[in-house]
Design goal:
The chain is an alpha/beta fold. It has a single domain, classed as Alpha-Beta Barrel (TIM Barrel). About 45% of the residues lie in helices and about 15% in strands. The protein is built from eleven helices and eight strands. An eight-stranded parallel beta barrel has the order 1-2-3-4-5-6-7-8, surrounded by six helices. Helix 10 runs parallel beside helix 11. Bound molecules: 1,3-dihydroxyacetonephosphate. The site of 1,3-dihydroxyacetonephosphate has 14 residues, from strand 8.
Amino acid sequence: MRRYLIAGNWKMNTTRQDGVALAKSLVEGAAAATKKVDVLVCPPFPYLIPVLDAVKDSGIAVGAQNAYFEAPGAFTGEVALDMLVDLGCKSVILGHSERRHVLGETDAIINKKVIATRKKGLQAILCVGELLEERKAEKTEAVLDEQMAGGLKDVTAEMMADVVIAYEPVWAIGTGLTASPEQAESAHAHLRKWLETRYTPDVAKATRILYGGSVKANNAETLLSQANVDGALVGGASLKAADFLPIIEAGVKLSK
Ligand SMILES: O=C(CO)COP(=O)(O)O
């Protein structure tokens, strides 16, 4: 049975003070929920340390929104995975659509990051998803196949033990447009099939596939109740405890 993972991607938001206050509210409101579901917050790099302090021993995990694949060295402006391990981060979001489409990350770069992340023992959350024009042209599955093949090149079945896939249709991110539960389920089922073909039925069964794109308190339960939706990667609605806690609760409610 796959355990739900409810992850908050704060993107380039919050101040230190607001981020710490948010983390403390989550500890108050969701520490108990971590018995049933995995809860993860991914603040901007400068706030990792205060947020890690704020959630210490609560069961809530902290992750980064990106990392560089090289060992520490002369890479101005980058953050090494060793540094994230050193801090106590558990997870890294990789290949988010904003990094692909705004910062120009390619599947090849993302692939190096996935491999380096797993080699350091951290959880890799690999994001995939199609643009609106790709969906309209009925290319969704082809785009997902390409991003999965590129992002997971040379990633072994053993490494897959802590790889999470996040399906984030780009047209649903920050737009208020959510994939319908049927659209989400169809993409997730396709991704699971892909995993089965590329790896094994066991890998496909064990790998969590999160949905991301305008997840809110009022749609979380329907999305999470789809057979192949194993959690949520939440942007805007992860920035306020009052918005994020009900999404966590939806996961708890649906957990056996
Ligand atoms: O990109 C996302 C999470 O990584 C989704 O963002 P929103 O929830 O703001 O649409």
